[in-house]
Amino acid sequence: MSYFDFDALTIEDRKMHEVKQLGLQLAATQASLLVVGEAGVGKTSLARYIYAKSRSPRLYVLDCKNSGGFDFNRVDGGTLLIEDLDCASLALQGELMKLVERTDATRPRFISTSRRDIRALVKQEQFRQDLFYKLAVVHLEMPRLEDRATDFGKIVNFILEVSQIMHGKNGMSLSAEAYGRLNSWNWPGNIRELENVVERAVVLAKSSHIEADAIQFEAVNEDLALDFAPGMSLSEVEKRLILQTLELTAQNRTRAAQMLGISIRTLRNKLNEYRMEGVL
Q1: pLDDT digits (tens, 9 = 90+) for 68-112
Q2: Does domain 14-141 sit in CATH 3.40.50.880?
Q3: Rounded to whole angstroms, how far apart are CA atoms 188 and 130?
Q4: DSSP string spanning 56-107?
Q5: Of 14, 31, 61, 93, which has the maximum CB count within 10 A?
Q6: How far apart are CA 40 and CA 9, in angstroms?
């Protein structure tokens, strides 16, 4: 998330409240944390929030999707925020292991984020088991926006206020129809998508009262890039769709089955087939 403030809201959702409280409890410790959740739920914002509540003197940020310019030698204590740990190459994992094995004051505290279940990557031998145990001492799982019904209205109002400040506006409000349109959407992109939709509505609104026609959704989910090609068999298309949906949901089978429109039993049977084929 780009501008979410965990102190600005009274969180009522039980799971999110527990995640926040555990994060605050661990902020002053040196325990390595792994924040897991779907794209757009606010993993990095929570990680930065925990860092801000700690006594750590400095923050280093490593983006595993674009790590080429990161200088491991300059890390000197503090906190290392590792974004998208599940995307770390084996070579990058090796560099991280060297940091983990430091025994002096230059060893940082580690807070990582991941969309996928690292344990599944360990089983597939795509992630080092020893590094996983070092970086994931405590797991924090962020809930989806769709599951935070009790917080939805407050989140919308907060984003609306921030969007107005960003664009030099004030006194804006949502009509009942506009809010109903927001509330009826399933938010596959989570809070990041909500930020985008509300900010666009603030920009497009013809008056201070935002009507339903200013609430516009993207038809395509950018996080699910399906590499289909003409000539592929239906079974191969089905396999790729299932596996990529699981990746999108951080290996949450219940959520994946819902998105695919199949039963959890059918999904389980398909995964057993792929395991027998050696795909998993």
Answers
A1: 889 999 999 999 999 999 999 999 999 999 999 999 999 999 999
A2: no
A3: 33
A4: -S-EEEEETTS-TT--GGG--SSEEEEE-GGG--HHHHHHHHHHHT--STTP
A5: 93
A6: 18
Those residues with Cβ within 8 angstroms of residue 205's Cβ, 6 or more apart along the chain or in another chain: 172, 211, 214
Q: What is the distance between the alpha carbons of residues 156 and 30, in angstroms, rounded to a whole number?
A: 34
**CA gap 17, 101 in Å, rounded:** 33
Q: Rounded to an integer, what is the distance from CA 146 to the centroid of its chain?
A: 14
Pull the structure tokens for residue 249.
């949901």
Residues of the chain predicted below pLDDT 50:
1, 220-224
Per-residue tokens: 209 = 């009262």
For residues 266, 271, 273 and 278, what is the CA-based torsion angle, rounded to 10 degrees?
Answer: 170
CATH 1.10.8.60 fits 151-214, yes or no: yes
Pick the CATH number of 234-276 from 2.40.30.10, 3.40.50.300, 3.40.190.10, 1.10.10.60: 1.10.10.60
Helix (H) or strand (E) holding 181: helix 176-184
Amino acid at 184: S
